[in-house]
Write a structure and sequence with these properties.
419 residues, eight-stranded mixed β-sheet, 21 helices, binds adenosine-5'-triphosphate, binds magnesium ion
Length: 419
């Protein structure tokens, strides 16, 4: 065991400090653990802070006003505060693994045992803010300094226990490759030897890890890993890996963010992968949200409209630029285009940005159902059609105030009703 002095106290959110102090003052040995300690050492902002402690779930319930039971049998509780929720897990070791994924039980134990059950050494560090030190039972600090993603203990044994660790390794590689991290040789060899055991991992967990690979700074590194360590088929089924397209996955996220001022999400990457990985059937290999499915389906629908954009009417252009997955489709096409196609995509975006700034892209409707009823129209499917026609006239900039819309409605009421 080695300890390292650190001065991170000011990086901890007040509620995390508060929970730790309460636990420690009541006599329970308690630390910040896992990914957040790794991130603090790397100078990155942790997404969340997990705690490990000697306290039992019942003791946690006594100490804190609001708690949630998320896995009492594993010693895992959530402490809820106004500022946020924090997971507090009891130090534990895993009992035997039988199905290649889950331990048959847990044994409550010491911090050292708890460090040894963790997947990679960089994820197995303990931080004690009160003493200002990091406790390292597994050589995690040396590995962080050497930029090495290495299993705690024997790589083959740890993957035989839990096959998900193969994908987690790829995911951490994609997340930290920018800081120079590489997979340890023994880990690579173990994954290559055991790649078929990915079949033991559920589609839900594969989707979660692939999603983190896509949303990492270097998805291409993860995709190359999947090919090189023969995990590709287990993730993407029969899709052909085309490594020539992998680097596009690295640039599409930043492109999307800068063009549309929106964080890229899984739908963007599923749409891109459905197009760039030939033969990939997203729904067969992943468990997708409705949004991600819809985004993948949107691209083929958007393509013909993109090609004909200049021929569309003003209203049709605006409707197209407002379509739900237009940004995703635009980013996918931009990433793969060159020459005139790029010019056309730029022109389209200039329209969108200009019309948006001038509030002409999606102005509030001039009339609604209530207006139509007041004019003597009867509710029904025709009313929807009439409202759509007025909307198109508005988007075409043929009319621009409510009175004009009402005049048209009055004049044409008879013909609409008889049609
Ligand atoms: P992130 O920053 O993406 O949340 P993380 O390291 O916190 O990364 P989590 O999936 O949140 O990863 O898991 C928290 C910690 O639990 C890990 O750092 C690791 O110590 C441990 N852990 C999680 N999954 C496993 C696993 N399958 N096998 C062993 N240890 C695991
Ligand atoms: Mg985490």
């Amino acid at each position: 065991m080695r300890t390292h002095r650190v001065d991170w106290y000011h990086h901890l959110p007040p509620h995390v400090k508060g929970i730790l102090t309460t636990l420690q003052s009541a006599g329970f040995e308690s630390y910040v653990v896992g990914g957040s300690v790794r991130d603090l050492w790397l100078g990155l902002k942790p997404k969340d802070f997990d705690l490990a402690s000697s306290a039992t779930p019942e003791e946690i319930e006594k100490l804190f006003a609001r708690t949630e039971d998320v896995g009492r049998q594993f010693g895992i509780m959530i402490v809820v505060t106004e500022e946020g929720s924090v997971e507090v897990a009891r130090f534990r070791a895993d009992a035997e693994y039988k199905d290649g994924r889950h331990p048959t039980g847990v044994v409550f134990s010491s911090p050292e045992e708890d460090a040894k059950r963790r997947d990679f050494t960089i994820n197995a560090l303990f931080y004690d803010p009160t003493k200002g030190e990091v406790i390292d039972y597994v050589g995690g600090i040396e590995d962080i300094e050497a930029c090495s993603i290495r299993c705690v203990g024997d790589a083959k044994h740890r993957i035989e226990e839990d096959s998900l660790r193969m994908l987690r390794a790829v995911r951490f590689h994609a997340q930290f490759a920018q800081s120079g991290f590489a997979l340890d040789r023994n880990l690579i060899d173990a994954v290559c030897a055991l790649h078929e055991r990915l079949a033991l991992v559920s589609r839900e967990r594969i989707t979660q890890e692939l999603s983190k690979i896509f949303l990492s700074p270097r998805p291409s590194i993860g995709l190359f890993d999947l090919v090189q360590m023969e995990l590709w088929e287990g993730v993407f089924g029969k899709a052909v890996p085309n490594s020539g397209t992998f680097n596009r996955f690295d640039s599409i996220g930043p492109l999307f963010l800068s063009q549309f001022q929106r964080e890229p999400g899984l739908p963007l990457y599923v749409a891109a992968a459905a197009r760039w990985l030939s033969g990939w059937e997203p729904e067969k290999s992943l468990v997708l949200t409705k949004d991600a499915k819809a985004a993948a389906l949107a691209i083929p629908k958007v393509l013909p409209k993109l090609a004909n954009y200049q021929q569309l009417s003003l209203a049709e252009k605006k409707l197209f630029l407002n379509e739900r997955f237009y940004p995703e489709a635009w980013a996918v096409l931009f990433s793969e285009s060159s020459g005139q196609a790029v010019d056309a995509l730029h022109a389209m975006e200039l329209d969108r940005l200009r019309w948006h700034a001038e509030k002409r892209l999606d102005p509030p409707a001039l009339v609604n159902g209530t207006d139509l009823i007041a004019l003597g129209f009867s509710p029904g499917p025709d009313m929807k059609k009439i409202l759509e026609e007025i909307r198109m006239a508005q988007l075409n900039e043929e009319i621009d105030d409510k009175q004009e819309a009402i005049e048209i409605l009055k004049k044409r009421k008879k013909s609409w009703i008889s049609a």
